[in-house]
Amino acid sequence: MRYRNHSGHPGDGCFSGRRGNLASGRVFAGGCEGACQLDWERRFDHMQQHSGQHLLSAVCLELLGARTESFHLGQEYATIDVNCSNVTSAQLSAIEQEVNRQIYSNRSIKSYFVTDEQLKDIPLVKMPKVTENIRIVEIEGIEYNACGGTHVAQTGEIGIIKCLKWEKQKGMARIHFKCGARALQDFNESVRILDVLSAKFNTGRKDILTRFEKWEQEHKQLKAQMELLQKENASYQSKELLATVQGHVLAHMFEQKSFQEIQQMAVKLTDEHDLLVLLATTADNKIILTHNGTQAVACGTFFKENLGAFQGKGGGSNQSAQAAFPSREDLLSFFEMAQHQFVQS
Known about the structure:
The chain is α+β, with helices and mostly antiparallel strands. Helix content is 40%, strand content 20%. It is elongated, with a radius of gyration of 34 Å.
């Protein structure tokens, strides 16, 4: 029997026949016959996730006093939203331990139909909205739930439940989890990543974090040394650039420097000298124009009036402006125009 989409539970969706494809919702015409085949791998995956959700929800109710308000079964992972605002790491770990303990107990999972009258004697988690054809899913010694979905026959068939994380969602806690084959695939992928990291750091799995922390510290030290060298180099270059000043204009085009580097250099130059500084780099196709308030140039206004002719985009204030260009040629043309105009004036 094919299960259709219902209440957060995807349908089997992979029937095929000689006269149609039931996955798309099409049906056979009256009197027609067709051969269909169930995608059992998909069905069993949904059974593991759905039964796992029932068990996980029951444990959340027991340990947190939080009832499940919604369930979503996605292609990668499943989620439940429980009516509490916070879940600690210790609580999530305890939930995971308990739910897997119940899996190992291999409790039976039964489904059966009851009448509205019989329903009164069953301690349901939540009363159903329907009053007929009421189907109960019972996990032995755990819970009774009105549900029309597909389930495994024993909790042991769920295999394992891995709680991945939790996050706040509209005042509730959303728990992400995987069951059975999905959890195994996730574990295998994690192991593969750990093996790659182990090889790169030339260490065992259990020592990866220690090795990474050491690498991170070394990286920070190297970064600090690099920044110091860049400042020293910028200081030397600033002295060389000062020898090229024309009037009160210092203009220079760099080939290899990043825009961040020329920004820092421009700030240093205008802090120490009363100059109009125009620096650009073809590495990023960006430019900066700045001064310390001693020059009669409105940088932002100049850029606004001239950038359009060179396909540049940017802006700024009276004392500083910056822009980017789509090509090296546009940047060079704008730089030469600006340099000529400032030097001439």
